[in-house]
Write a structure and sequence with these properties.
The protein has about 350 residues and is of the alpha/beta class. Helices cover about 25% and strands about 30% of the residues. It folds into 2 domains: about 150 residues, no CATH class; about 180 residues, Rossmann fold, CATH 3.40.50. The longest helix has 17 residues. The two termini are about 15 Å apart.
């Protein structure tokens, strides 16, 4: 979903989009004014495939997917099936009856056949950033929230790396990406509640931290109230996450009807990036939401491609479909585009500083 509304505002998003529109980018100096030129060399997509009951579909192959960018057919370069799907875990239905589930990691050859390189669970884990609301909205359910997050951390695949951040008015990077679950849980237990909530400011900076990473990457937000202190809108956060291939999941402790403005923003941001928003009114539903996120991450197909020549230097729309009549009944969830912008590099601080419009939306 391309987020409607105003053009990219002056928060320096263009610099982040420069850094990583997809898994890899390459820079070249243009002139003495230090302008940078982006050559997109690889676009990565994380794709969920489900049936009408929400069950994940396993066993799909590269030739089952059709990827189109700006109406230009693209050729799949690499293909991975999620670790849970590849090993038959979770709520999974094989797409090809009578066949073993697909290989976890494949590289599409000249004829499109998959060549096995290894297993996802032992080779490629996800990079997961947990962003915890420690604002003054969180006083009542603080301990329960810490418990739910700690259980989620312990349940993740051994190959995953996890970072733990917290936010109120400012962002606190308590634990950087690490496979050490004990260290991350200690970061969770050390948090204290207080001050206003600047969710969108903090989420923008977290997306920026995730931008240089390749492979599957996601941000899991735990929120207990509306944003009342940010200087940036959720639309800009969503577009940056889309363009850097970062999935956003949001777990809100408020019921959807209690905060209609926040609910709409959370749903738009998560959907635009291929993630989900959950509205959990009690600790049991919070745990269920985290379990759902864990299952989703484990069942995502990772697809990459080298874009065909394309004169469009702004927003590029992506469409992913399944080929073959028997696969048309399944549903696909992924990001639907990215922005390609030329600008100069900036710092973290300037991400939140107003300035001129960076590029027109198409």
């Amino acid at each position: 979903m391309k987020i409607p509304g105003k053009s990219l505002s002056a928060i320096g998003i263009g610099a982040c989009l420069l850094l990583l529109v997809a898994a890899g980018t390459r820079f070249a100096a243009q002139d003495e004014s230090s302008r940078l030129h982006v050559n997109v060399v690889l676009v990565q997509l994380n794709v969920a495939v489900t049936d009408h009951n929400g069950h994940y579909i396993s066993g799909l192959k590269p030739e089952d997917f059709v990827v189109v960018e700006d109406k230009i057919p693209e050729r799949i370069a690499t293909f991975e099936e999620g670790s849970a799907s590849a090993h038959g875990g979770g709520d999974t239905i094989p797409a090809h009856h009578g066949e073993a589930p697909g290989n976890a990691m494949m590289s599409a050859g000249p004829s499109g056949e998959g060549v096995t390189n290894g297993k996802l669970s032992s080779v490629n884990g996800a990079d997961i950033f947990i962003l915890f609301d420690t604002s003054n909205y969180m006083y009542r359910g603080f301990v329960y929230a810490q418990d739910a997050i700690s259980d989620f951390i312990r349940s993740m695949d051994d190959a995953d790396k996890i970072a733990f951040y917290s936010y109120s008015r400012d962002l606190s990077r308590a634990t950087s990406l690490t496979p050490d679950r004990f260290k991350v849980v200690n970061g969770v237990r050390s948090t204290v509640a207080g001050d206003d909530a600047a969710l969108y400011n903090s989420l923008l900076l977290t997306v920026k931290d995730a931008a240089p990473l390749t492979g599957k990457k996601a941000i899991v937000v735990f929120s207990n109230g509306p944003d009342n202190a940010s200087s940036v809108p959720p639309e800009d956060v969503a577009e940056l996450a889309q363009s850097t291939g970062t999935i956003i999941y949001i777990v809100s402790t408020r019921l959807a009807q209690e905060e209609p403005v926040s609910t709409a923003a959370f749903e738009r941001m998560s959907k635009a990036t291929g993630g989900k928003a959950y509205f959990a009114g009690n600790w049991r539903k919070e745990k269920q939401a985290f379990a759902s996120i864990r299952e989703d991450l484990g069942h995502l197909y990772s697809i990459s491609y080298y874009p065909q020549p394309n004169p469009n230097r702004g927003w590029r729309a992506i469409t992913v479909k399944l080929s073959g009549k028997d696969l048309q009944k399944y549903h696909i969830r992924t990001r639907d585009g990215y922005s390609l912008i030329q600008t100069t590099a900036i710092t973290n601080e300037s991400l939140l500083t107003p300035g001129p419009e960076l590029a027109p939306r198409q």
